[in-house]
Hints:
alpha+beta, 5-stranded mixed β-sheet, 9 helices, 12 strands, 53% helix
Amino acid sequence: xxxxxxxxxxxxxxxxxxxxxxxxxxxxxxxxxxxxxxxxxxxxxxxxxxxxxxxxxxxxxxxxxxxxxxxxxxxxxxxxxxxxxxxxxxxxxxxxxxxxxxxxxxxxxxxxxxxxxxxxxxxxxxxxxxxxxxxxxxxxxxxxxxxxxxxxxxxxxxxxxxxxxxxxxxxxxxxxxxxxxxxxxxxxxxxxxxxxxxxxxxxxxxxxxxxxxxxxxxxxxxxxxxxxxxxxxxxxxxxxxxxxxxxxxxxxxxxxxxxxxxxxxxxxxxxxxxxxxxxxxxxxxxxxxxxxxxxxxxxxxxxxxxxxxxxxxxxxxxxxxxxxxxxxxxxxxxxxxxxxxxxxxxxxxxxxxxxxxxxxxxxxxxxxxxxxxxxxxxxxxxxxxxxxxxxxxxxxxxxxxxxxxxxxxxxxxxxxxxxxxxxxxxxxxxxxxxxxxxxxxxxxxxxx
Length: 448
């Protein structure tokens, strides 16, 4: 079955279903016809039995023999055998009767020499234990021939209907699967350079419309991923080009002529700063690569989030004082997680909040302990975030400043991406909101 096409499988399935239904209906009809004939034969033989009993009331009289002959003459295909209580044969109205007949009382069926008989055994006198036995034989060969012809017709009908259904099923399946062939044609033309192709979702069957929608959504995600990958490569090149150019230029200028030892020392210090920036950038990129491959495995240790937050606020207090920004923490909760990873994530959010909070503004950290988990919100007053920038805030190297004037490692555009990876590694999620002059990053962590 694996080598058969879907159309062939459907056609064979239709044919098999039709054959089963036709065969079942034919068998039921054959059984019903056979039962109907048995019932008719039973009624006929019961009627003849009553007539024979009346005719043979006085079996020794000549009048009784006349009535017996008259009764038997009315049914050409009916035969009679009378045997005594001792098993001796008293009477046969036909020399063609078989020698051995069924002895059990009631109705039975006998086949002898190509002829079929319905046999009824009954006593002549019901109230006498030594009563002679009457055996009525009804020739039903024509009934059996009819049933055989009907069975042959059933098999012929089953075969023809299965063949017709297979052909019609193949045509219907091929017509019904035409949208799948269109989907295959579109899929075969998809490549990294042509991810903008989409399947037409209109005029499609409901079963395939959902598949087409999912396929188009997949192409959209692939297209977006390739675009982000291309942008990521360009961003890496841009971020590394500047420090490398600085190192080359500074080193070339320093080596143009002999200089005092202090000039060389100053040049080395300047180069060291650029190298440290590049090392931090590479470390951040490796950290994100580990997160992409599920290699970030946070330790689980009990943490008091209020204490951890207060320590970070104390660290950022001098910067906040210089920027004339107020820091505040509200709420408390306990959580089992990786202390260093969560501190790094919260530090990135606090650093962003401080950089974009105007003088006399405020940065708040709110911790809310809930039944199903906890939420940690870092919010700051200011101008807010443009809604058009929201979908890309957590992209790598993405910064709202297109001029890329920032030159420090912590401002390379990786902070929010790293924060998101840390929160996901803990089974949580992070989102950004901006309204009424406040920008907030909301972290939701599950209860452990």
